[in-house]
Amino acid sequence: MADERRTRVRFAPSPTGPLHMGGVRTALYNYLYAKKRGGDFIIRIEDTDSQRFVPGAEAYIIEALAWCGIIPDEGVDMATGKVVEEASAKHPHAPYRQSQRRGLYRAYAEQLVNAGWAYYAFDSSEELNAARTAAEAEGRTFIYNASTRGQLRNSLTIPETEVKNMLDTRTDWTIRFRMPEGRIVAMDDMIRGHVEVNTDTLDDKVLWKRADELPTYHLANIVDDHLMEITEVIRGEEWLPSLPLHYLLYEAFGWTDTMPRFAHLPLLLKPVGNGKLSKRDGDKMGFPVFPLNWKNSEGETYHGYREDGYFPDAFVNLLAMLGWNPGTEQEIFSMEQLIEAFSVEHVSKSGAKFNPDKAKWYNKEYLRMKSDEQLATLFEPILASHDVRADHDYVVKVCGLIKERATFVADFWDIASYLFVAPASYNEKDVAKFWKEENYTLAFEIADIIAGKGVEAAEEQIRERQWPMGKIMNCIRLALVGSSSGLGIADIVSLIGVGEFSKRIENIKKALL
Ligand code: GLU
Q1: Whole domain around residue 481: which residue ranges?
Q2: Is residue 392 within 8 Å of 307, Cβ to Cβ?
């Protein structure tokens, strides 16, 4: 059934902190899935857990997705960064922030109570803790379900009149799902295939809380997916254990005909060893785990790909390849190409090991694909920060000559500062190695030829006289670059000009003779 409907998928983050790169990947896969089918990609903010709410997290999520070019069709107005609220007839599902939909969930929870799929629970947290401790003392784990609910304080055990009274006078009750006893829930996941779970292992989850009059994640998520006509739920593997409850909620509401299909994405794993990729791995190994920089309430800053100099298209490309493969050798994909090639069938079941070197490789590849003009625009602010003001066409030319050597635009200054300013010092190791009298005296003669007749003529002289080419050129390079690295001498001279060339030869004489 779901297949015949217009494809509608959603990314449903909870604003409990910055979005980890795994979260961005989930958003990306949803986006690719929707766009490939000409469907809708929706952003819904799941902010009903007020205790875990982190100020700024929602804005961060929206900014991160916008940076990646993951633009929603509904849910968030990218121009203002705000969630579209009751915006227009164009957005019949607004608002998209669950805290602003709070009024609608209670009736759904009560519908389940009336149908016998849920009940009111009055247990205080002290009572629940006592039940937990008692179970532990007997070596059991307490689980609120058919095995215990008969002994607990809820509308299944308390007389109706007393229940009514407590509902009216108390504000600490909840509505819990009544998990059926001994049922096998058979589920189909688009990535994992067929999965079965016995309901005896599951608990009676809280669906709605009178205390803050808010739904929990499970109720709000199912109700909204239904109301927003979601056709596929693509989310992280950590939600797989919730799937049986979600299946049963669809059944309880009578919505199985339009129940979305589910796809649970594999985890992103640490570069070395096992386990989930964490912020700590990033700190230890020096790579970002977040799309943008984030400063937490303790003032700690987490590195972001954007601030570390990654191109958004490189980041999107490398994320896409973490857990998905096109079934070919192709590694470089633009967003359009990803949309064309993406399929859930090629998402792997097993976790995807993150390789920070591969991430750098992607940036290097994308850097090489940028035009010299684009790179110059990015390099110019860096030059300005070094008090260098250079002619734009000159910067463009330099970018063209050095881009093969860099991974990030931020590398340009280290690679090419000598093309803008004369070296202020000379690399000691290179000086020890090359700055010998028998070499530099020849180098000065050659420098004169370079200044007069050009590099080719100078090289011809060296060959004719059978002088040591490498040693001489390294002395000249030392004068021009400050070390024995850098572009070919001819390129350097053509960029900095003969006047500057001669000045640098004089500089090194003054400094080292
Ligand atoms: N709010 C959940 C989260 O933070 C959404 C899970 C889902 O997509 O169902 O990941």
Answers
A1: 428-512
A2: no
Assign residue 432 the CATH number of its domain: 1.10.10
Given the CA of residue 11, which atom of ligand 1 is nearest to it? 8
Distances (CA, A) of 394 to 179, 341, 376, 380, 422: 71, 40, 9, 11, 16
Strand order in the sheet with 184-189: 40-43, 8-11, 232-236, 261-265, 184-189, 193-198
Q: Is residue 13 a part of any domain in this protein?
A: no
Shortest-distance atom of ligand 1 to CA 16: 4
Residue type at position 436: K
Distance from Cα 266 to the centre of ligand 1, integer Å: 15
**Contacts for 205 with CB less than 8 Å, ≥ 6 apart:** 176, 177, 179, 216, 218, 245
Furthest CA-CA distance within the chain: 112
pTM over 0.70: yes
pLDDT along the chain (513 residues), means of 10: 80 95 98 97 92 91 94 72 48 83 96 98 95 94 96 97 98 98 98 97 97 97 97 97 98 98 97 89 91 93 96 98 96 98 96 96 98 98 97 98 97 97 97 96 97 96 96 97 95 97 98 94
Q: Is 353 exposed, middle or buried (0-12, 13-18, 19+ CB in 10 A)?
A: middle
Q: Is the CB of 199 under 6 A from ligand 1?
A: no
Number of domains within the chain: 3
What distance in Å separates the CA atoms of residue 435 and residue 509, rounded to the nearest whole number? Answer: 11
